[in-house]
Write a structure and sequence with these properties.
six-stranded parallel sheet; binds zinc ion; 10 helices; about 250 residues; about 35% helix; alpha/beta; elongated; binds ligand BV8
């Protein structure tokens, strides 16, 4: 995998790095991307993810939405981090130790594979599929929901339990969004990895970084042709990030 020297220098000389990841970073772990689902690949392809991942979808048909998330949890449960997750975790750890760079990790993924790879901290913009809470009172649902086919009831108020992910039309967790905005605002290198940059407000972070003079690098086998990208590396995240030394 050839990577231009000026890209390598740009990564080496960066002081404050903001990494934004999307479903593409988990593709090499065997987890289908949203794009894959939309393009009719996979079991639930006859459903529109945006319909299933929405409060209207849940209110209209909670059973189907619950079963979609149970299916995704079932698919994800034995998936392991791939070289992309591991390279990012190593980069965070090493930069923390050598103090040469500050590396912030912002993810749109709900699969928890960054944490499994040892990344810490991880800013989860769209929640996490392994957590659940009550739609009515917000109480976190501690009990395991493994194998529970019907929508569980909240132990506090009897309300419907839902996955703790951000659905379309819902606001992002305030703390997470604040962390993402400040990381993008103050970085000198913004690295967009495995995202189609179509879902907002996450897709606006690269432009925010650019507006503050940061260099924007995209790692994606399919260029998104976003106008804010300075360097596009047309390769798979695992292959590209494992060849880069930080
Ligand atoms: C589709 C889009 C047009 N719609 C939106 O953006 C909407 C509406 C909207 C808001 N502002 C706008 C402005 C303009 C237009 C629309 C909007 N946004 C919202 O609804 C957001 C909420 C958005 C979050 C939705 N939840 C998700 N996930 C959790 C759930 C779940 O997972 O079930 S989004 C979900 O889809 C997105 C999928 O995108 P990607 O991750 O990029 O994945 P994708 O499959 O698209 O692409 C994969 C890429 O990887 C590449 N790839 C493949 N293999 C590899 C490989 N090996 N290596 C590297 N790359 C690879 C591929 O080439 C591809 O490019 C992710 O964000 C993911 O988290 N909320 C909100 O705005 O609330 C308002 C509000 C504000 C205040 C108060 C009240 C309300
Ligand atoms: Zn409740």
């Amino acid at each position: 995998m050839h990577i231009d020297q000026d890209v390598i220098d740009c990564i080496k000389n960066a002081r404050r790095v903001c990494i934004l990841t999307g479903a593409g970073v988990s593709a090499e772990s065997g987890i289908a991307t949203f794009r894959d689902a939309k393009e009719g690949k996979g079991l639930w392809s006859q459903y529109d993810p945006q319909q299933l991942a929405s409060i209207d979808g849940f209110l209209k048909d909670p059973q189907t939405v619950w079963q979609w998330y149970q299916w995704r949890r079932d698919v994800n449960k034995d998936k392991e981090p791939n070289p992309a997750h591991l390279a990012i975790a190593r980069w965070q750890k090493e930069s923390h130790q050598n103090g040469k760079q500050v590396v912030s990790l912002i993810t749109q993924n709900v699969d928890g594979l960054h944490q499994k790879a040892g990344s810490d901290p991880v800013t989860e913009l769209h929640g996490n599929i392994w957590r659940n809470h009550c739609l009515q009172c917000g109480q976190i649902h501690q009990d395991s929901v493994e194998g529970i086919e019907s929508v569980p009831q909240c132990l506090a108020c009897g309300g419907q339990v839902r996955p703790s992910v951000v659905w379309f039309g819902e606001a992002l967790p305030e703390q997470a969004w604040r962390e993402a905005e400040s990381a993008a605002y103050s970085c000198d290198l913004f690295l967009s990895v495995g995202t189609s940059s179509q879902v907002y407000p996450a897709a606006g972070l690269a432009a925010l970084a650019k507006s503050q003079g940061a260099t924007v690098i995209e790692i994606n086998p399919e260029p998104t042709n976003s106008s804010v990208v300075d360097y596009q590396i047309a390769g798979k995240a695992g292959e590209v990030l494992s060849t880069l030394t930080f």
